[in-house]
């Protein structure tokens, strides 16, 4: 049991310069006994309101140096403070505020919400067990307008999809990875590096791109590049929810539409998922 969607903004000041972290936290516990379920005995139950208050107090006392460190702090607090807790799991998700720049100059106290992917992390620990940390990015929308196709697929009497060697590849990406044994990592640096790998593998070189024969191959290319460049990552899961566009037939308007006006297909949509780990 636990407390979900604990939302707050943590403001940190260094002189005139301000820093913000707005997060949503979910924290769940497992206790030594299930007596509250089986017998209605609540003597070991830490109220979910207390869980919420602890999260807020830790944010006040420790700040949020990184999402991962904050999740670790929460796990350690419950494990070291309450003997009846045998398992704790914390999920932390960040609102994507970025410092506002004016004419290339960073503003000291103004920020802009930029929806270019949401950062999240999870930390979980069993009593007498290792602390395990996961991190990720979700709701990251990516598109390339060429250098993508889909050919040579299996066909039968139900197949109506035509083969294409030049199409728009667009999708909403979810990516989650594990660090294995938790060490003194620079979580911010690693997260930014992984995000750069995702963009590089999806798009290819900036002057020419790289051909993608399928959504599945793009997913694998992203995973392979991350595992080759980021040694701290042990296992990585990628889900790419496909966003399709159909070319609008404009013949009845007396126009030829050479893939210049397209209509997004809302539903149904395809999805490709893969989990890849080191040997």
Question: What distinguishing features does this structure have?
Answer:
279 residues, alpha+beta, eight-stranded antiparallel β-sheet, two-stranded antiparallel ribbon
What's the topology here?
Layout: E1 2-14, E2 17-31, H1 35-38, H2 48-62, H3 67-81, E3 85-94, E4 97-102, E5 105-113, E6 118-126, E7 131-144, E8 169-181, H4 187-203, H5 215-229, E9 235-242, E10 244-247, E11 262-265, E12 271-277
Antiparallel strand pairs: 1-2, 2-3, 3-6, 4-5, 6-7, 7-8, 8-9, 9-12, 10-11
Describe it.
- The chain has helices at residues 35-38, 48-62, 67-81, 187-203, 215-229, and strands at residues 2-14, 17-31, 85-94, 97-102, 105-113, 118-126, 131-144, 169-181, 235-242, 244-247, 262-265, 271-277.
- Helices cover 24% and strands 40% of the residues.
- The chain is built from five helices and twelve strands.
- Helix 4 runs antiparallel to helix 5 (215-229).
- By secondary structure, the chain is of the alpha+beta class.
